[in-house]
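Tutorial sheet, problem 5. The two components below are modelled jointly, 483 residues in total.
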Amino acid sequence: MGILTLTGNYAVAWAVKRARVQVVAAYPITPQTTIVEKISQMVENGEMNAKLIRVESEHSALAATFGAAIGGARAFTATASHGLLYMHEVLWWTAGARVPVVMAVVTRAIGPPWNIWTDHSDIMDQRDTGWIISMAEDNQEAFDLTLQAFRITEDNDVNLPMIVGLDAFILSHTYAPVDVLEQEDVDKWLPPRKQLYVIDPENRYSMGNIAYPKDYMLMRYDIERAMERAKKIIEKVDREYGEYFGRSYGGLIECYKCSDAKYLVALMGAWAGDAKEAVDKLRENGYNVGVMRVRFIRPLAVEKILEYASGKKGVLVMDRSISFGSAGPLFIEVSSILSMNGKPPAMKGVLAGIGGVDVGYRDIMDIISKFVDEVEERGWFVKRQEWFFSHKR
Amino acid sequence: MSNLIKIKDNILPLSVTSEAAMGKTGSWRTFKPVIDYSKCINCYLCWLYCPFSVISKSEDGVVIDYEYCKGCGICADVCPVKAIAFIPER
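Model answer (structure tokens):
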């Protein structure tokens, strides 16, 4: 197939086809709709041998996907924003049942006021559900991550569902060249579906009956153990993908020009590309900075964040959403990890790009250089929130 | 703990299906549906609508399994000839 010019959404649809997904159930919502639209076209054309289930809501969309998955099918759904919030309950059911499912989330702000542009409030709202949660930086990664998601979720050591996140419009509706791998190559790399158990007429189980407190707590502990194991599997799958197809992304975290940097900026998603450009330019101006791109907010790479950020003079965290009454979710995570260190770096949480406010590399240059200058002038400090409302230009 | 279903070192929220796994739910009833067979026209609407599948078809007409009927009253409500009385349990 080679290189195709695809939107982020079409890249996801192609990966779903290449993964030989058998069941897709979804409900349309901007900016996700074109993923399932493309899949439905592929099914209708006979290019893809899958059952497409139309449902009346997102709650049902994930319930149907979950049902197909528990019955042994490789299943996929996609949603965004209010749709993701509406299916929130079923996210808990899927993870709690330990059933592999892959879902694309095209991250979008939550109303009111109504807003269709990117921010990470929807995906961050799912952190406690037991799902593996990732964010892609570009369309190629959206394709690669979707394929990797099937290997990760269906690994014997994991058996948890996974979200592949991509930013609304910046990726979802923007065309870019994507290397769509050949079917026979993907077939060699991605084995047929595996899962812990299947419920069908031959395997009659009842799932989700009442469990007494001690048993319930043991099952919660098991999910956490699987999350911990998932860290190794995510790294392994990304490495093997790289060996096989020539592209890998650093596993849980991509560190860009980190090793010799005195300062790091941590962030997730598409604007990491702008941050890398900002870092390149800032280095020309004598700022010794690097980018720590968090690819997975769950499971969180505690060890790697400690390894990469220890000994740095400052760490700036950029969040595209806010946990009201505290700080940006990524700042909460990163600052708590770095505080485990005896001598934590200076830290600041910047809130930007919320509700789709455009943030370009020059804005990020301003944000980073301001932080570096402040630390150099004032010395060590921690600031949990600083709001960056809009670009000047 | 020995009755928990464990697969490949994972404790799972599964149970093996069996009759009366949750006890005999007929004891939950406060009202009891009683069929008047002289009025019943064997339309099977009660059989179709019963949410717990405790109404079965037999040669003598529909039969309610009182061991598991929770007494929701849907059968009495859907009966087009009012052949099902809904009477308080004592």
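Marking note: The CA atoms of residues 173 and 283 of chain A lie 32 Å apart. Full credit if you identified this.
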